[in-house]
Specification:
- The protein is about 50% helix and about 10% strand.
- By secondary structure, it is of the alpha+beta class.
- It folds into 6 domains: about 180 residues, no CATH class; about 90 residues, no CATH class; about 180 residues, no CATH class; about 40 residues, no CATH class; about 90 residues; about 55 residues, no CATH class.
- A hairpin with a 7-residue loop joins strand 10 and strand 11.
Length: about 725
């Protein structure tokens, strides 16, 4: 090496060239440390191409990873990669993504692999086709990247051979490893360049740490004097309390590393005891481990994470709506640790997702839902990426599990790596989430919507009629009654209150109708129950009953005794009756939908409307279509009008006139008759010197204007 003077400049020799000397150089080494024996671990293996994921922790891991971040030509970030890949380099966005939750050794190896891709295989968007033609094929690119990663890791005494050898072999086209042989110089040069840069950044990190130690804050005296067994920031979230404690601890200078701060916040959000959080901050500040060694103390991290995992779920009021906690979020509109009721979170997540649809990238948000289901406290964790088009929180959860429930590649992955029992368990869990958990969440949101709608008028300050005030208060009582039922697993909730139940005039009308029914039943010598069971008709007299039981046929009526015969049906009327019979066996709603389609609608519903005046005690029956138009189909005494039997009979009668087939047949018959009439009329007009007319078409008035009152009539169009 060149010999340097005190100022760092080369010392020239007699010949004018710099003098050289031999120096011993220390190469940084990063020892792999086993944290768990395989027998002590559990969980799904991460999918890969042909080899198992590397395991083990690395001494000074945080320093090494920070050096890689500074070495990389593009930003590096962690994310949940659901495809099973350990990482990827995004060609268009110029960024590297690394899967969360991998071992430290696998994370470092993957980061170097992706940095090699970013260094060697980036594409210039302005490159010509000729320049792109020289780009290596996929096999060669993967062999180069993994070989560079292996060489760099070997330099720092990180053994990745168990993974890298299999990976390179898997991507090579044959046993000769032609891609590797053709790339040896590229691999050597790239690995050497990366090692030089990493060494430089490691040395820089060491200098920064030494400078921090020279400016070390005063001796740590702890947080005990801040709390003194008094309430600390009442009303603040656990994360806000933790951040305030950390800020106080570092008021004289930095004592915690970023990884230690994240660990403290995670601990605070779950443990929710600021005394314990203060104890952890005391411990980490006193040790100063991350500032000295570049990473959190592995033993402390393991202990804290174990305590987090074993912590009981948040104690909710068993009668309360589920609670959503934002664990962390990239959205500026959410705070880490922020909490809100499920219904509010559902609407907020949808609004944030809609707002990001036209923006580049996504705002990732990790959340937890704490709830009481079937009488037991539980929680659900997930992550929604705002801007991905998933919609509300509940829509995101439902869409996520519907996707994986139907994804054959996921099924094959689970079967291959974990076996049939694991797949059955996976399927059962998703069936429970889609079949029970999602409806449970939606019912809670429905109750909250009812609660908001009732609270709004009550809190508006307006003067409400007494029946409305009573109704809205009854709705609030209903919601308070239903939430604990729902949390105990009762999903068939009671019928909610209706405004009509509090209408004084309507209640008087109901009392009047009941009085009529009681008098009619008494006149018929029947109880109200018997009268209702008989269709609100008097019982048949005994003579009529005996006549019905007599097997003998009555004597044929003479012509003088016979009732006047109805006029015979036309061919069109006969056809209408036959067509209507084809619909009689359909469910009532399906028959209503047939009538709705006749009027250009999709569906409809039966409505009954009590009459007034001389018609008091009866109700009109109509079909209200989805376009708002209404078709009258009958009028009966109110008790009968509300029975399915009478409503079904009315619908069947209407089907004879209004179904798409008979309307079309009617139009065709009418057109033929009107064309003949046109010829006759115009001949008469010609004789009298009148202007002839031209017939155009026959149409059915579908009532869309909802004004003329001629709905269901046919009309003729003329020029």
């Amino acid at each position: 090496m060149e010999k340097l003077d005190a100022t760092g400049r080369p010392i020239p020799g007699p010949d004018g060239k710099p003098l050289t000397e031999e120096q011993e150089v220390t190469v940084p080494a990063f020892k792999v440390v086993s944290v768990f024996d395989v027998s002590q671990t559990e969980g799904r293996e991460i999918p890969d191409i042909a080899v198992d994921e590397l395991t083990g922790s690395v001494e000074r891991y945080q320093d090494f990873f920070t050096a890689l971040e500074r070495t990389s030509p593009v930003p590096i970030a962690f994310e949940d990669i659901e495809s099973g890949a350990h990482g990827y380099y995004h060609l268009e966005e110029k960024r590297i993504a690394i899967d969360k939750g991998m071992s430290e050794l696998q994370t470092l190896k993957t980061a170097i692999h992706e940095i090699a891709h970013a260094t060697l295989h980036a594409i210039d968007k302005d490159a010509t086709p000729e320049e792109l033609a020289d780009r290596p094929d996929r096999r060669t690119r993967e062999v180069q990247a993994e070989s560079v990663a292996y060489a760099v890791c070997q330099h720092y005494e990180l053994d990745t051979s168990d993974y890298s050898f299999g990976y390179v072999a898997g991507w090579s086209s044959g046993k000769e490893l032609s891609e590797l042989k053709a790339s040896l110089e590229t691999i050597r040069a790239t690995a050497n360049d990366l090692i030089t840069k990493i060494d430089g950044h490691l040395a820089q990190l060491q200098q920064e740490r030494e400078a921090q130690q020279e400016q070390a804050p005063p001796i740590w005296n702890g947080l005990d004097g801040l709390i003194n067994d008094k309430p600390f920031m009442p009303g603040a979230t656990p994360e806000q309390q933790a951040n305030a404690l950390m800020d106080f601890a570092e008021r004289d200078g930095q004592r915690l590393g970023n990884e230690e701060r994240r660990l403290i916040v995670d601990y605070a959000n779950v443990i929710r005891d600021y005394h314990k959080v203060a104890d952890l901050i005391n411990e980490l500040c006193e040790d100063g481990y991350e500032l000295q060694h570049g990473g959190v103390d592995i033993a402390v991290k393991m202990r804290v994470e174990r305590e987090i995992a074993e912590a009981p779920p948040i104690l909710l009021d068993p009668d309360a709506e589920p609670l959503v906690t934002v664990i962390w979020s990239e959205s500026a509109d959410l705070r880490d640790g922020e909490q809100m009721p499920l219904s509010q979170a559902d609407a907020v997540f949808k609004a944030l997702d809609d707002a990001m649809k036209d923006e580049p990238g996504y705002d990732k948000t990790k959340f937890r839902i704490d709830f009481t289901m079937n009488g037991k406290a539980d929680n659900y964790e997930g992550r929604q990426d705002f801007g991905d088009g998933d919609g509300s929180l509940i829509e995101h959860i439902q869409g996520y599990h519907e996707h994986y429930a139907q994804d054959e590649s996921w099924k094959n992955h689970v079967l291959h790596h974990e076996g049939p029992e694991a797949w059955e368990a996976d399927k059962a869990e998703r069936d429970m989430i889609l079949g029970e958990f999602i409806p449970y969440l939606k019912l809670h949101c429905n109750l909250s919507a009812m609660e908001r709608e009732a609270q709004r008028p009550l809190q508006s300050g307006e003067t409400l009629p007494p029946e409305q005030t009573a109704y809205f208060n009854a709705v609030l009582d209903y919601v308070r009654q239903c939430r604990p039922l729902l949390n105990q697993g009762q999903y068939q909730l009671p019928e909610p209150p209706h405004l009509a139940d509090f209408d004084v005039e309507l209640q008087e009308y109901k009392a009047h109708v009941m009085d009529e029914i009681q008098r009619e039943a008494a006149a018929a010598g029947m109880t109200v129950e018997e009268y209702a069971a008989n269709g609100y008709e008097p019982a048949a007299p005994p003579e009529a009953a005996q006549a019905n039981e007599t097997p003998e046929s009555p004597a044929p009526e003479t012509p003088e005794q016979a009732e006047p015969t109805a006029p015979p049906l036309t061919e069109l009327e006969k056809k209408a009756v036959e067509i209507a019979k084809g619909y009689e066996n359909l469910p009532l709603q399906d028959r209503i939908d047939v009538i709705a389609r006749t009027f250009g609608c999709t569906t409809g519903k039966i409505e009954t409307s009590p009459c007034r005046g001389k018609w008091r005690g009866t109700s009109d029956i109509s079909i209200r279509f989805d376009n708002g138009a209404s078709l009258a189909i009958g009028n009966y005494r109110t008790p009968k009008a509300k029975t399915v039997k009478v409503q079904s009979e009315c619908v069947n009668a209407v089907l004879v006139r209004y179904n798409p087939e008979i309307v079309q047949a009617t139009k065709e018959a009418a057109v033929a008759a009107l064309l003949r009439k046109e010829v006759t009329d115009n001949a008469i007009a010609a004789e009298k010197g009148l202007k002839p007319y031209t017939f155009l078409n026959v149409e059915l008035h579908d009532g869309a204007d909802n004004k003329s009152g001629y709905m269901g009539w046919y009309y003729v169009t003329l020029p």
